[in-house]
Amino acid sequence: MNAPRYGALDALRGIAALLVVGFHLSQIGMIPVIVPRAYLAVDFFFILSGFVIAHAYENNLRTRLTLRSFLIKRAIRLYPLAFLGAGLGVLVLLLKWILYPEKVESLGLLLATGALNLAILPSFLGATAASHDLFPGNGPLWSLFFELLINLAWATFGIWLRTSTLIAIALVSLTFLAFFASQYHTLNIGYDTATFWAGWARICFGFPLGVVIYRERHRINAGSRQWGILSLSAALIAVFAIPADLTSHVFPWIDLLIISICLPAIMMGGMTQMNSTACGNLLGGLSYPVYVLHFPILLMMSGLHQSLLSKWNIHIIACMSVLAVLLISWMAWRLYDEPLRRVLTVMTCKRGEERYTRPSPSERLDGASQSDGRQADVRV
To answer: What does the alpha-carbon distance between residue 142 and residue 153 come to, in Å, rounded to a whole number?
Structure first.
C-alpha cells in the first residue's frame, strides 16, 4: 500500500520557498519589504523535514533499511541540486573577484571556501565580502548543512528515542533560541560564523518537533479542524509579513512565538489535507530547487542591473529575476536533478531492488530542507 500523500504540505513548502525569494529580493533592494520575517521559513522547513523524514523512513530504519542505505538515499536526494547551487555560489564569488577584486578575499581563499561549500561544508576562512557567511556565495545552503547533520543523527540514534525525549530536546533547544534571540534581537541567525551555534538550536528545535507531530498525527488529526490550503497559505504569508518596525521592542519574542506556536499549527493544519493537486505538486517539486538556486541567481541579476542595465526600472529587473529563478529551477529539477538521481539510484541499487520511481511528497524534504535564505542581512 502506498504511503499517504500530504498534498497541502507540498504546496505550503513551495509557497514558503517563494516567500524566501521575496525576502531576498527586498534584501538586495529590488522590491519593498513585504515579508520581513520570511527568514523563519527555515524553521518551517526544519519542522516539515522532521515530519516527512519520519513519515518516509522511521519504520523502515527500525526494521529493514540500513543506515548506509538511508544515507545514500538522502545524498542522492539532496546533493545533486545542492552541488549545483554551491557551484553557482562559487561562480558568484569568482565574478566578484574578477570585477571587484578590492571587495573580496584573495583568489586562494575564495577557492578554498568554494571547495568546502561544494562539499556542503561551512567555511570559517574569512568571507568578509559576505559578512562572514558560512556559505558566502549561496547563503541559504547553511540550513542544508544542518539538515544533513540532523538526518545522520536521527537515523543513527534518534529513531529509538522516546517521544518524551524528543519533546525535551525541542524544549531545551527553544530555551537556547530564547537566549540567542535576546542576544541578537532576531532569529535570523545561524548562517554566519558569529551565530553558527544558533543554527544548531534552530535545527534541534524544528526537526524533533516535526518528528513528534508525525508520531502524534492520529491524535492531532482526531481533534483538528479541516483548514483549506488557501487559508493555510494565507496564514503562512501573514505571519511572515508581520512588520518589524511595529514590534521592534519585542521583535525576537515575536519570532519565538511564530516558530513555537504559529508554524507548528500551520504544519498540523496542512497534514490534515491529503489531496494532491497539480498546482500543489508543482509547488512541492519546485520548492527545493528554488530554495538552493535562487540566491546566486538573484545576486547575478543584481550585478547585471548595476553593470549593464542600470537604466532599466528596478521592478522590471525584479520580475526578470523571479522568472529566471523559476525557469532555471524548473529546468534544473526536470532536466538535471531527476535524470541524475535516476542514474545514481540505478548505480547504487543492489540486484533485485525496486527500480527508481519519482519521489513521493513524503520523500521530498527541503528544505530545504530547507530551507533559509539571504545575504545582505538575510540568510534564511
So the answer is: 17
Residue 377 is given by DSSP the state S
> Is residue 250 classed exposed, middle or buried when 0-12, 13-18 and 19+ CB atoms within 10 A define those classes?
exposed
In one letter, which amino acid is 223?
A: G
Residue 377 counted as domain residue: no
371 located within any domain:
no
Does residue 277 lie within any of the structural domains?
A: yes
Domain region containing 88: 7-363
Neighbours of 59 (CB within 10 A): 13
Closest among 152, 147, 143, 88 to 114, alpha carbons compared:
88
Displacement of CA 166 from its chain's centroid (Å): 21
Give the mean pLDDT per block of 10 residues along the chain (380 residues).
73 97 95 95 98 94 93 95 97 88 81 93 72 88 97 95 97 97 92 94 98 92 70 95 72 90 94 82 96 97 88 92 98 97 86 44 42 39
**All three cell numbers of 8:** 497541502
Query: What pLDDT sits at residue 380?
Result: 46
Please tell me the distance from the alpha carbon of residue 135 to that of residue 191, in angstroms, as a whole number. Answer: 8
Any bridge partners for residue 133, and if so which?
192
Kindly report, residue by residue over 304-336, the tens digit of the pLDDT: 998 888 889 999 999 999 999 999 999 999 999
Which alpha helices (DSSP H) does the chain contain, by range?
7-27, 41-53, 59-63, 67-99, 107-118, 141-156, 163-184, 196-215, 217-222, 229-240, 251-257, 263-270, 278-307, 314-331, 338-348
Residue 16 CA, chain-centre distance (Å), reads 9
* The total number of structural domains that make up the chain: 1
**Spatial distance between the Cα atoms of 173 and 193, rounded to a whole number of angstroms:** 19
CA-CA distance, 265 to 307, in Å (whole number)?
A: 45
In terms of phi and psi (left: phi > 0; alpha: psi -120 to 50; beta: otherwise), the region of 174 is: alpha
370 in any annotated domain: no
> 3-state secondary structure string, 220-266?
HHHCCCCCCHHHHHHHHHHHHCCCCCCCHHHHHHHHHHHHHHHHHHH
pTM: 0.90
